[in-house]
Design goal:
By secondary structure, the chain is α/β, with parallel strands linked by helices. The protein is 23% helix and 28% strand. Bound molecules: NADP nicotinamide-adenine-dinucleotide phosphate. Residues 10-299 form the Enoyl reductase (ER) domain.
Length: 301
């Protein structure tokens, strides 16, 4: 099979498909033929070494999420031919999804949504699981006020869609005025481009996705989550009785099943900026690095 695997930290231009043995299917795992995956910021940081020492030993295959077709499932949960999505905690396991064939624990796979194609479906698992798990940690209820920063991004946009669909009042911070209309269409009530524009001490919860300092915007007694690992720990707001946390995503099939339901009920609309063949991985990454994305970049195998 082919895989986008690296044996050292590499520039984009060194990425290429290489031939590798097919994965072994160990007990409890399902073998999937990958149709589509996507580029996430963590892949970029892992490839170029920005992630630091926490990479698996070289060589390893990149990629955290997939949509594909079941080839074999000795556990019997899925049938050959089933359309599925899956998430792999690539940094923890070294098992990437940018390959023709991937074997994943059956507990980290779910039947794919039926309302969208596999390219769209393959962009949801990592940002979707992150959004759901962080919203769960935030323990927020209808009529509360939530601030989402980086709300036009993959994690932020899913968080806005889920939270606003449950009656939570969501405001948002984006990087550019051109993103305001999109994020408003997802259900955000007020969208600004700078944290300084936010009303002081007005939000019950903050969900930060880029390392914003929104400490002045959250009310005393609130909860403050960030997923921006590159920005260091969450601000310490204990003096104001605010619980803050740098949250880390976990692979979880139950969460994937919730995401599938949210896609099929129209709560989450996956947004794809562009689609590239896996063989065209260098151009795909150049698009990713150029920024100003209108959704995710899909890699089709
Ligand atoms: N801890 C975890 O388990 C976990 C899980 C998933 C993701 N993450 C991390 O979370 C971050 C977000 O992931 P993602 O997939 O959502 O990335 P993404 O799609 O690139 O979204 C990030 C968003 O933040 C915006 N942004 C960046 N700087 C900003 C600023 N100064 N002001 C306003 N907006 C700003 C970006 O705007 P532009 O497009 O204009 O740059 C983009 O819309 C990444 O760092 C990722 O590695 C962590």
């Amino acid at each position: 099979m082919r895989a986008l695997s690296i044996d050292r930290f590499s520039p984009i231009e060194d990425l290429r498909l290489i031939q590798m043995p097919d994965p072994e299917v160990t007990p409890g795992e399902v073998l999937i033929r990958v149709v589509s995956s996507a580029i996430n910021p963590v892949d970029d940081k892992t490839r170029n070494g920005d992630i630091g020492d926490s990479t698996p030993p070289f060589p390893f295959t990149l990629g955290w999420e997939l949509a594909g077709i079941v080839v074999e499932d000795p556990t019997g949960r899925f049938r050959p031919g089933d359309r599925v999505i899956g998430m792999s905690h690539q940094l923890g396991t070294g098992r990437g999804t940018w390959a023709d064939l991937v074997s994943l624990p059956v507990t980290e796979v779910a039947v794919a949504p039926t309302s969208v194609g596999l390219v769209e479906a393959g962009t949801v698992p990592l940002p979707g699981a992150t959004a759901l798990q962080v919203l769960d940690w935030l323990d927020i209820h209808a009529d509360s006020r939530l601030l989402v920063t980086g709300a036009a991004g993959a994690v932020g946009s899913i968080a806005v869609q889920i939270a606003s669909s449950t009656g939570i009042h969501v405001d948002a911070v984006v990087s550019r005025p051109s993103q305001i209309e999109y994020v408003s269409s997802l259900g955000a009530e007020s969208v600004v481009t700078h944290v300084e524009e936010l009303p002081a001490r007005s939000y019950d919860r903050v969900f930060d996705t880029y390392g914003a300092d929104a400490s002045e915007a959250i009310s005393d007694g609130g909860r403050y989550a960030t997923v921006a690992t590159q920005a260091g720990p969450a601000p310490d707001l204990t003096a104001r009785t605010i619980d803050s946390e740098l949250c880390q995503v976990r692979a979880d099939g139950d969460v994937l099943r919730q995401l599938v339901g949210l896609v099929d009920s129209g709560v989450i609309s996956p947004r794809v900026d562009s689609v590239f063949s896996a063989a065209d991985v260098v151009r795909a990454h150049q698009r990713f690095a150029a920024g100003n994305l209108q959704g995710k970049i899909a890699l089709v195998f």
